[in-house]
Structures are given as structure tokens and as C-alpha cells.
Batch of 4 targets.
Target 1
Amino acid sequence: MRECHDLFKGLESLTDYCGGDGTMARAIAKAHPHLKCNVLDLPKVIDKAPAHDVINFVGGDMFHTIPPAQAVMLKDDEDCVKILAQCKKAIPSREEGGKVIIIEVLVNPSLGPIIYESQVLFDVVMMTVTKGGQRDENSWAEIFKKAGFSDYKIVKKLGARAVFEVYP
């Protein structure tokens, strides 16, 4: 939160996709008390989430609907283009402050050989265990375009992870 405080500046509402028990949403709400936070996850996950007075927990299927919010935050994915297309439907236009926030590993050889090797090995694990994988910036740009977004920027690089803002 300290590194990305400005990322949430000007937002009024946020949906944390696959937000689990709401840990990240609670941290965001604590740092930004004006922000209305939704946590979207499978009903079986939401049923176990601890109640919170500020966080709205929504059980659902993110392939069909995402609660409307000014921003949607993603941290991991498998069916990225489909999910991002749903996110795009849930947010307002860029002029109205709409954006998707993605926190994800960004494969980047410039981080040095040890981190790059770790990223590539983790990519092999992701492809073996799930349908997902780690991506470089060009791969992300292609996914954003396929999902119908007009633009993106990398707001912050945090070691091997990057924080993206993606705009409708």
C-alpha cells in the first residue's frame, strides 16, 4: 500500500476480483476510508470470509458478471481475456475515472539473471498446474487489446511484480 498509495487517488469504488477473505480490500479501505470496496469471489469462498463493516462481499461467477465499480483489481488469472472483458463492462469510461488495476508478475530479463530465471521457472509451473502463465509487457498489451481496452500504463514495478492501470 505504501508503494501504490496514489493508485487509488480519486477512486470512489473498487471491486477486488478473486479477493478471497478480503485481506487486500481491508488494507485498501483502511488506507482510503472514502473508498467503497467490493470483494468478488466464488460463493464457497465468500461464505467463509469474516464479516466487515466497510467491505461488501459478493459471491458470484466472474465470467458472467462483476459488480459495477470505478475500478476492478486483478491479481492472478487463468482466462484473462474473458475476465478482462467482463471487467470492462463493470467500469465507467476512462473520462469518468474507470480503470482496471492489475497486480501481476511481469517477466522482465532486465531484473537480473536470478529473478528472470525464477520468473521463467514459475512460468513453467503455471503452465503445468493451471492454464495461466507469466507474461512480458508485450503479452499483456496484446491481452488488453483483445479484451477491448484502449490503453494501459505500468504504474509501479515492485520487484518481479508490476502494477498496471488498464483503461477502457
Target 2
Amino acid sequence: MTSVLDKEGVTLEELRKKMVEFARERDWDQFHSPRNLLLALVGEVGELSEIFQWKGEVPRGLPDWKDEEKQHLGEELSDVLLYLVRLSDICGVDLGKAALRKLEMNAIKYPVKLCKGPSIKHTQINVGKSNVNGDSGSATDQVINSDIKSPSRADGF
């Protein structure tokens, strides 16, 4: 018999179905309101945050972490993902489609030609005579601050 762990990859739909089955078998649907799931998700994000607390900046791949630490991280990341998948299902949101739509929106909001490198808010990007929101904004908003460098965006993902 093939284990779930032997699979190459997993889809959001497979996770959604497994979460439905898991909750149904335990009669937990009665507790899975959007509010309850959101609060549980926030709690799990807190547990995930605790893993990184006091570690300072951590390099990609976590080369200095022990296997046990990486396993714990995987468990907490999984908790966050599973609650997010369950919450989206209960709310009737197709998470995969919503994520792809958000990526498309971010690609428009942050065009590569204007955003490659700096970590700036979309309201600071000069696109023609107006910013990406369509309003003229202030003079400060119309300038890309190329001195700002960061691997993460203030908005997006």
C-alpha cells in the first residue's frame, strides 16, 4: 500500500478533501465556523513565529538548524496551511484560484520594469501621470526610491 508521504506532490484540492474527511470523522464541523477557524489559524501563526523568535536573520535553507528544528518548523507550517485550506473551504473560496488571481493583480500592481529591486509600496510607483491606483498622488508618491533594498515587499506576499 502506498503512503501519502510517498506521493511526489499534493494539491490544495487533495488537502481540502482530507480536511473535510478529518473533520467529518470527528464530528468537528460543528466547531468549524469561519471565526473559529480564523482564530485557530492566528494561534498557529503565533506558534510558527515563536520558532523564529530570537534567532535574528536566518539564511535560506536553514543550514545551521538541527533536523528536529526543521521537522518542528514543517509541522507548524503545516498547521497554518491546513487551517487556511479549511477556512477557505468553509468560506466557499477556491484558494488556488484566489492565489493565482492575487499573483496576477500583484504583477499589474508591481510591474517588473518599475519594481525590480526596490521594496516599495505600489502607491510610490510612477506609471505615466498617475500611480497604479489611478490618482495623481503626491510628488513623493511619484518617485521610486531606489535606495530602498529589501528581499520582501511591504504588500503582496
Target 3
Amino acid sequence: MLLLDEPTPRLNSRSAMDVLVLLHEVSRARRQVVVLSIHQPSYRMLGYMPTSSSLLLLSRSAVAHFGTLKALEDALARLGHKIPVQLNPLELAMEVTGQLEEDHAKFATHNDRHRHDVDDEEVSLGNGTSPTKATTAA
């Protein structure tokens, strides 16, 4: 795994793209995961991210989004935002991080509750007792 914090600061856009192209090639050639932080990604930079890549958007140390670019676009649409042609989804997301934080927290809480319900069901199915009895017996 290659971790890079701001590999493109103070570079002009052409040099920044050269760095991303090189990282992309290294990642593919070595089948290596590359994790990097970019504070102001351009639309062209997003083209070097595989569609299955996960984005972590932080705001004031809180998660505003974690998932694919498509999931980010869906979250923005769910919040009533249309991505203007002159912006990429990340640029718009950076303008509405507060709303994304609330949305992420709401869905994370929902998913945690669902995950907990599934865990209880697995306990129930796994030992033939009810979740309450399984938890109390432990």
C-alpha cells in the first residue's frame, strides 16, 4: 500500500496530472493500493480513479462521505443538489459538507442499527435461541 499526503501541492495542473498518471500506472503495474489526499481535485484528476474506488470526504474531522463517486453523486441528488456543469461532484460536495455530514450520520446510524439487527438474527439462527437469551447467556 502506498500512502501519499498531498502529492500535488504547488504543482501546475500539467505536472499534477503527470504525477497522477504515474501513480495510476504504478498502481496497475504492481497491483498496489494507492491512498492519497488531494484538497482540490480537478475533474480531470477524477478520471484516473477507478469507478470502484472509495472516496473519504472529511470535514472538521467528521466523515461527510465515504463511498464511490457515484454514491456521492446520489447523496448530493438526494439532498436536492444538481451538479453544475462547471463543477465536479467533489467540488460541489466541498461546498455542502455540512449537509453531507448530516446525511452520512443519518445513513450510518441506520446501517449500524440494521447491522446490529442482522448480528442478532445471526446469533438467533446460529444457536437456536432468541437474541435476548443468547446475549444474556454470554
Target 4
Amino acid sequence: MSVNDIITSGAKPLFFLDYFATSHLDVDLAEKVIKGIVDGCQQSDCTLLGGETAEMPGFYADGEYDLSGFAVGVVKKDSVIDGKNITVGDVLIGLPSSGVHSNGFSLVRRVLAQSGLSLQDHLPGESITLGEALLAPTVIYVKQVLDFISKGGVKGIAHITGGGFTDNIPRVFPKGLGALICEGSWVVPPVFKWIQEAGRIEDAEMSRTFNMGIGMVLVVSKEAAGTILGDGHGSNTAYRIGEVVKGDGVRYQ
């Protein structure tokens, strides 16, 4: 998540540092956690520079731990992507998520409890369990997005985290501009459909809480959109999900 935030400014992640805290260090568990961090750093060409491990007896329950970290990146001042050049008619390109990513879990836990299902039960209609669907690792978009940026025409980037489409996309627009989203223009993962049906959640609340299958949105010129969509295939799937319009906020059609 940290490196995904960094690339919204057009910056390249340089290094990451972690903090791991627990009551009693379980070496096997810690190794698994660090391996996950290393995998993420490799996916983003980012160095795991160091970190801190803290043991605080009695502070955490057995098997529990706190994990945090931060990343540092670099971008030339004249190459910062800040959205100031976004204009009406620019295209919104969505990059698919792997699922819930790291946001909305308070609501997810409530829905899971109300559903009467467990994490070991299968996601209805699918071959994977609810646990596998809900805890799918967050997509790291660094290499894909930096490649798009290198081709030119990328004017703004929104990482779709807490606040979903409703809060995150407008943050990159100059005053007086908004987004028109074309519903049905991308594949919504089954896990979101289950959350909505099991929790009886309205569309507006879903779009304000979850990424709904789009983890990163790029605001690009029409010319750049053609290049990006032409390159979007296989693991680098990209969708044209809407455009920039006059007004404020996000509208759907």
C-alpha cells in the first residue's frame, strides 16, 4: 500500500522499513511476515532497508502482533504528477484489484458475522474460500504504472483505498471538475457481490467503502488512453472506466 501511494505522484519507490511488535517473538511467524514484505519489495523494485522488532510481554495476546512500515520514493520536481493539467474529456483508466485490498474490513467483519459463514466456508458460487477471497494480497501497481507514466500523457493518479471511488478520485482533480463513471465497464470480483448481498448494502455505500474491483485510477489524455489500453492485456489488464466532466464529485451512468 505504501508504494502504491508513492507512485500516485509519479515517484519511484526507493526503500521500505518495517516495524514488527509482539509479546513473544515466534521466529517462524516472523519469518513468514518478513518474507511477505520481501516479496512486496521485489514486486516494486524497492529495497527492504531495515526495520525494528519489539517484544512487549503481556501487551499482546498469544499469536497476535502489530505490523507497520513506510516507504520512501523519489521523483524529479518537474515530473511530479499533481493533476493540475487535467481537463474535461480526459480519460479514466482503471487497473483491476485483487479484491478488498486493505480497506473496509470493519464492514467486512460485520457482514461476515451476520452471514453465519466462516472464513473456511466457500465464497458462494466460487471455488475459493471466503478467507482466500477476503485476504487476497493487495496488488502492487508500481512497475505497471511507472511504465505507463514513461510513455507520457498521465495527468493524475488515484489509489483507491478507504473512501472508494467517491472520495479518492475527486482528490486528483482541479476545482470544478468531476468524474463520470461507466458502470459495467470493468469486472467486479465476486467477493464484492457477496458482501453487498449478504450485508444488504446500498450501491452508494459500497462505492464509498470499497474499491469495487479497481485499485488504481489513472487520468490520462485521449492519446495516452489508446496506448495504455492497447498495452493492457494478460496480467496488465486495464479498463476505460469513464471520463473527466464539468462539475464535482463522482457520477455514474
